[in-house]
Structures are given as structure tokens and as C-alpha cells.
Amino acid sequence: MNLLFRAAAIAAVLHITPAVVLVKRPDAVLALLPGAEAYFAREVHLSNSDAHRLHLAVDWSPEDGVLTFYGGKTGSTVVGSLEFVRVDTPHGPIEVAVGFTPDGTVRGVIVTKATVEMKPWVLDAVGAGLGDRYRGLKPGDRPAGAAAIAGRAGNLAEYIAGEVDKGVARALAAYGTFYKPAKT
Amino acid sequence: MLYDLRRADARIKWLVTCLLATFGLSYVFGALMVALYAGFTPKRVAATYAGREMSMTMPPETTMTVEHPMSMAEFARPEVHAVDTDLLIQDTHVHVPMYGIFAAALSLVVVGLSLPRGRAFGLITLLFAAPWLDFAGMWLTKFASPRFAIVTLIGGWAMGAGYLVVAALAVQQMWFSRERS
User: Fold this and answer.
1) pLDDT digits over B91-138, tens only?
2) Residue A44 to residue B65, Cβ atoms within 8 A
3) N or C: which end of chain A has fewer CB within 10 A?
4) Distance of alpha carbon A65 from alpha carbon B10, whole angstroms
5) Model confidence over A2-21: pLDDT tens digits?
6) What is the per-residue pLDDT across A65-75, written as a single tens digit (0 to 9) for each?
7) What is the residue range of B20's domain?
């Protein structure tokens, strides 16, 4: 019986709560690709060796081996691109939108999805300025949002910022290695 | 048999009733969650679990890029909640122990009911088989064929049916049976 209660307690603790949309994708697109009048999706189907390289770099493989970048244009001028990256945490998945300027630096980061449980942690982290900490990063840089908000938000906000760091690191690695700017 | 819910102390009956009511509440919200994220039709369940993986071709020999225009409406289109392999591993890891606890608790109620042994064995088997079917259906849908989505639906309905049968029998025998003490 003791085992039964322990198993119930563990299962209850580990139970993943439903996902909630924090920022709708169109709103994230408008914020991260400002002024764009037309959009395009660029799907990069990774070969085995490239997928392995990415996995070694950031311990991550995109779903189905396909990286999807979304770009925005005004006329023939590219205003930037963005990726939606999912990070699986022990508390469920979060989705991070990472936007890039045309010169390849991070324009902004928005957490678009989390679980019911993690939502207040994300809001706490964002309230402590997490989104601003990634601006200007370029491929090869190491995101350090969690360290930046340490002491300015709760422990769980700091924890979730670490997960957002992972998402940003993945986006930077994918962008730096596989995104070739569109011709303008 | 010593353990007979019809003749149990009123406090035990109340405990079992509260347990069943709590399970019932969680089942109702479980069904709502299924409606939100997976659906009750084989097509929607297949879309959730099979996803693109069923139609996935082998990775190309060299990395390939495909580009197509997107409209804002496409960004706004409701997404099919897709459960990929990683998430299904996580879901299985956290749900199956909980389902086991539910089945065990309901089976303990079954043992206290006045039922022919065969029916009790059948009911206990149903309570444990239902979550197995539920998750077997998800895995088979992902890796064998989207047609196995029906197995997940059968498992889900079997869980609901098993709960309803146990709850109805328990409430009837504990509170409305002539033989109750």
C-alpha cells in the first residue's frame, strides 16, 4: 500500500498540465517581423549528417528533421525571419518564437506557449525583462537569460528562463548553420 | 467475505463515494481535455498521434530547402495538437502510472462489491486493459498505421465505461441495496 501511495504521489507531481497559448502566433509574427507585408516559409529538410551535427551542437533535433524559418518582406526587402522552437521540459512543452533581423542578430524572443503550470513562471520571467536579454545575440553567442534575471524574479521564473535559453540556443544554432538569407 | 461494501461502516462507504465522485470529476475534465487536444473521432486522433511522421520520407542525402509563401491567415490557422515521439514517451511515462493507480483503486472497490467472481474478474480486467488499449493505440497509430486510432478511442471509452459501471454498482450496493447494513 505504501508503494501505491508513493507511486500516486510521484505520478501527481509529474503530471503535465495542458498547454496554453500565451501569445498567438500571428501576434508574435507581427511583433518579430515588423512592417512585413508578405511572408514566406522556408523548410530546411536536414540530411542525416546535418541533423546529427545540429544534435551534437545543441542536443536537439527538430520535429521530423525539418527546420522551418518564417520570413517577412516589404516589397523586395527582407525585414527578418523567425523560428518557433519547442522545448520539452519535465513540466511539459514550451514554445519560443525567436526573431532575427536581416543582418542575423536576434530582434526579439517571445514565449508563445507554455503549460498551465508554467504560465505564471513565464509571466514572472518576462516581467523581469527576460525578453530583452536576448536582443542583439548572434549565432555562436550563448544565451544567458536565466543568469540575467537571477535575483529579479522567483526561482521558478529563473528555471523557466533556463528553458527559454535552450530554445534560443537552438534557434541560434539552426539559423547560423542552415538559414541562408533570401536574395533581396 | 469480510470485505463487503454493502455492510461496510458508513465512513468507509462515504470514503468510497467521495473517491468515486473525485474520479468522476477528473474523468469529466479528462474528456474535455481530450475534446480540446485530440478529439473523439479516429481522424482527429490519427492527426494528433500519427502527424507528419506517417508520411515522412527518408531524410535526404543532402540538406534540401523548400520555400513557399505564407499568408497571415495560415499563421492564425488553428494548429493540430501533434504529439511527437518525445512527447508521447513523456505522456506514457506520466499517465500510465496514474492510470494504474486509478484502475487499482477502482478494482479495490470492485472487490468489495457483491458480484459473481467471473464478473468481478472481467471488470478488473477491463479497468486495467482500458489504459493499455489507450496507449497501445497511440503508439500503434504513430508507428504502424493511423487506422489504430480506433484502438485509442476504444481504450478511452472503455475507461469511461469501466468507471461508470463501478460507480453505479458501488453507489447502488452501498446506499440503495436491501442487504446493506
Assistant:
1) 899 899 999 999 999 999 999 999 999 999 999 999 999 999 999 999
2) yes
3) N
4) 59
5) 555 555 444 444 456 677 89
6) 899 999 999 99
7) 7-53+81-176
> B98 to chain A nearest CA, in Å?
6
CA distances from A149 to A168, A180, B115, B158 (A): 16, 33, 61, 48
Residues facing A86 on adjacent strands: A95
Domain-located, residue B36? yes
In a domain, residue B158? The reply is yes
Give me the residues paired with residue A153 across strands.
Answer: A150
Which are the contacts of B164, defined by CB distance < 8 A and separation ≥ 6? none
Q: Say how many Å lie between the first and final Cα of chain A, rounded.
A: 68
Do A19 and A92 meet the contact criterion of CB atoms below 8 Å apart? yes
Q: Does B69 touch chain A (CB under 8 A)?
A: yes
- Tell me if B111 is assigned to some domain: yes
Of the candidates B33, B90, B95, the beta carbon closest to that of A88 is on B90
Is B29 in the A-facing interface, judged by CB distances under 8 Å? Answer: no
Total of domains in chain B: 1
B165, part of any domain: yes
